[in-house]
Amino acid sequence: NAAAQAAGRPVRRGVGLAAGWYGCGNTSLPNPSTIKAGIRADGGVVLHQGAVDIGQGANTVITQIFAQALGVPVDQVQRVGGDTDVTPDAGKTSASRQTFVSGNAARLAGAALRRQILHLCNAPEAAQLRIGAGEIIVGDEYDHRIELGKLAADAEGYVLSACETYDPPTKPLDRNGQGEPYAQFGYAAHLAVVEVDTALGTVRPQRFVAAHDVGKAINPILVEGQVQGGIAQGLGMALMEEFIPGRTENLHDYLIPTSGDIPPVETIIVEVPDAHGPYGAKGLGEHVLIPTAPALLNAIRNACGRRLYRVPATPAAVRAALRGELDD
Fold first, then answer.
1. Catalytically annotated residues
2. pTM for the full predicted model
3. Residue 12 in 3-state DSSP?
4. DSSP-derived 3-state class of residue 114
5. What span, in angstroms and rounded, lies between the C-alpha atoms of 271 and 217?
């Protein structure tokens, strides 16, 4: 920056850091999820998963957790979802709760179904399962064969089934504001590198490094996707998105980031297993949005010496701050 200033160039580079935390699930309120699963006489394994996937990968992660608990390959699980007639209530897709809450319900359902199978042949917990056409082979020191066609089917056609519910252990706040509003918290730290054109007021993010404690990354690729999407949203909030009645009432004038606005994002996955999460996993959603805008504003401050306290940091706002026209 000193060299650029000496040479008369208006572009300054800055680095900003911000941290954040977020509770997973509803605040001090019951928010259970229920998951159902069954095995048909033909050996088909079916997961009734009602958690709505809005792009975050809940269908994949919840199926992975169930398959792990049951002890079968994930590609052997047939998923039924998005139909309130045939799937139990898995709660709303909000509050970064689906991996945590519905994932736990899926884990419990898979474990319950596994216990039924092992009980049929008095096999140990560590026994391996191989579910094939019309049979289950349970292997420990000796193989046990369960002929599924000899078991009575229920009204839905399942010879073995389980339905389990999980509700996070929270406590309402007392009159002094003390309690346990969340059973689980996620933590994050973001570093942003920006270039600020002091003549034009434009801010161009150059790089993001985002570290997130996710407990256990059930699916690392989906974790990275969540981080990238959250940073895109946070960047829009910090630099672009401004509602002006009568002016920015459509997506032509109300600016949101495109792929061309997002800089390279390096995701650092921190895995500190959570006591309540399925296999130690935590939710990851809103967590990413929280430190993104503060990291960008800190980077602007580092680049040009001016602190902005309101978003978005549009070119006009940055220019006004550089001229000392914005109130603290």
1. 286
2. 0.93
3. strand
4. helix
5. 7
* pLDDT tens profile 212-263: 999 999 999 999 999 999 999 999 999 999 999 999 999 899 999 999 999 9
CA distance 187 to 275: 15
Q: How far apart are the first and last CA of the chain?
A: 24
* CATH topology (fold) of 2-24+184-322: Aldehyde Oxidoreductase; domain 4 (3.30.365)
Cα–Cα distance measured from residue 48 to residue 181, given in angstroms and rounded to the nearest whole number: 29
Q: Which residues contact 26 (CB under 8 A, 6 or more apart)?
A: 95, 97, 170
Q: What is the largest CA-CA distance in the chain?
A: 86
Nearest-angstrom CA–CA distance, 46 and 40: 8
Span 27-72, pLDDT tens digits: 888 899 999 999 999 999 999 999 999 999 999 999 999 999 999 9
Lookup: tokens for 248: 């920015």
d(CA 66, CA 47): 8
Question: 3-class DSSP state for residue 289?
Answer: helix
How far, in Å, are 8, 11, 127, 195, 303 from residue 3 at the CA level?
9, 11, 67, 14, 13
Whether 4 shows a pLDDT value over 80: the answer reads: no
Q: Is the pLDDT assigned to residue 126 strictly greater than 80?
A: yes
Asked whether the beta carbons of 27 and 180 are under 8 A apart, the reply is no
**Fold category of 33-166 in CATH:** Aldehyde Oxidoreductase; domain 4 (3.30.365)
Q: Give, to the nearest 10 degrees, the angle between helix 220-239 and helix 286-304.
A: 50
Same CATH topology for 2-24+184-322 and 33-166: the answer is yes
Find where tokens 């139909």 sit: 83
The full set of domain ranges for the chain reads 2-24+184-322, 33-166
| Mode of pairing for the β-strands spanning 45-49 and 77-81 | parallel
Residues comprising the chain, all counted: 328
